[in-house]
Amino acid sequence: MKIEMKDIYKSFGKNDVLKGVNFTLNEGEIHALVGENGAGKSTLMNILSGVLPKDKGEILIDGKKVEINTTNDAKKYGISFIHQELSDWPDLSVMDNIFMNNELRKGIFLDKDAMRKKSIELLKRFDLDIDPDTKVSKLSVGQRQMMEIAKANLNKVNVLILDEPTSALTNNEIDKLFNLIKRLRDQKVSMIYISHRMEEIFSLTNKITVMRDGKSVSLMDTNKTCEKEVVSAMVGRDIGDFYPQMDAEISDVKIEIKDFSRKGYFENINIKAKKGEVLGISGLMGAGRTEIMRSVFGLDPKDKGEVFIDGKKVVINKPIDAIKNKIAFVTENRQEEGLVLDESIRENISLLNFDKFSKNSFIDKKKEKNLSDSLVESFKVKTQSSEAKVSDLSGGNQQKVVFAKWYAINPEILILDEPTKGVDVGAKREIYDLIKDLTQKGVSIILISSDLPELLSLSNRIYVIYEGKMQGEISSHDANQEKIMTLATGGKI
């Protein structure tokens, strides 16, 4: 089935989101749709899947004009959208989720036996060893994602739209998902693949459509282009080398973490990070990387362990202790732990910095605004005002607000947990530049990242954690992806 979207327009109030977009998907094709956050990718796909109506333009299927105004219209043509935020019902069973709004009946009664039998057949077809009576809340994110794809195939699917499908998956789950995608492709299912991960795009897709500022600006054959060309089309400029040259002067040990243990999470962890250094922390999901740093910062408890800063022992039992010792922590989950989404940019930046503009319980509003405005400018947050709600910003700009909030406390140690997760390539480069600037000011950076090219390019040294234990340390000169993955899976080098 061939789909053509021609001259598609969409506005929300005075905000023109799509401005004459053209997009073509051929049968059996895996077509990447890429662009910075806010480029219009999700809006375009919401129109194709019937979630949103278009304002103007045409949709053609196999050359014939069709109207897709509801999700039922889309289902009629076999179009299914697997959203980044999974739309399942966690408190219901797998079977109930699969047959939601598609229940099988015997007269007026639900035919549970038929639904269970069909669920088992469907799950088996997708190599999912899951009991259909299992509650969805008991499944891993990867299993839930695969269940959603299986559900989409309950009825014939011609087009599958996947929005950032690997953002919360383990490496093993990613491999299973990719195998499933390739099997669907071989069955002539067409797929639209939205992702910020270039390595996935180049390994899976046939074509790449680039969107920028609500327009489709480039169509490329995947095997005839390169990452640099795609990124340049996304941001509208040549960004040069994607990763900056990390050339800060590295001096004495700034922070030492000694004999850190927490039963069931990590054991006897010893880490040293120097001034001006980016210290990488690698390991598979669940290895304990995040848990170690949460305990160091005082967010989570530890059973034993000591922290030394500039050679002096410090006591950190809660985050305020860490902040007093000039430690900042950009957590992985920025929306739940890093920001107050319903508040403004100014209010979020102010949360840790009242001492800079308050006296005797009175807030100097002018000083507060000057601080937030200057940080918005310095961190290149794309917004019309620091009074804008954080919830209205793209993921990349939300992350810059988190950086700005912590930067204002003048940290000497900065822990970054997956700092570019869900961030578009343009914002990624800006975050990398921020990291470089901080190291040149002598800040020690501890970087947890599952993005191995990122980790290898930014880090001076890398510690690898395996099942809660220190598996090895590699210098940036000796490190490569193969060595890191060998250590991360329990091997030796």
TrEMBL record:
Keyword entries, A-Z: ATP-binding, Cell membrane, Hydrolase, Membrane, Nucleotide-binding, Repeat, Sugar transport, Translocase, Transport
UniProt topology in membrane: Peripheral membrane protein
First-listed, main subcellular location of the protein, grouped into a coarse class: membrane
CDD domains to which the protein is assigned, alphabetical: ABC_Carb_Monos_I, ABC_Carb_Monos_II
Pfam family of the protein (one): ABC_tran
Enzyme class: hydrolase
UniProt domain ABC transporter: residue ranges: 3-238, 248-492
Enzyme Commission code: 3.6.3.17
Highest taxon listed in the record's lineage: Bacteria
Compartments in which it is found: Cell membrane
A single cellular component GO annotation: plasma membrane
Entry-linked PANTHER family: CARBOHYDRATE TRANSPORT ATP-BINDING PROTEIN MG119-RELATED (PTHR43790), D-ALLOSE IMPORT ATP-BINDING PROTEIN ALSA-RELATED (PTHR43790:SF3)
Protein's name according to its UniProt entry: Sugar ABC transporter, ATP binding protein
Species of origin: Anaerococcus hydrogenalis DSM 7454
Lineage start: Bacteria, Bacillati, Bacillota, Tissierellia, Tissierellales
Gene this chain is encoded by: rbsA
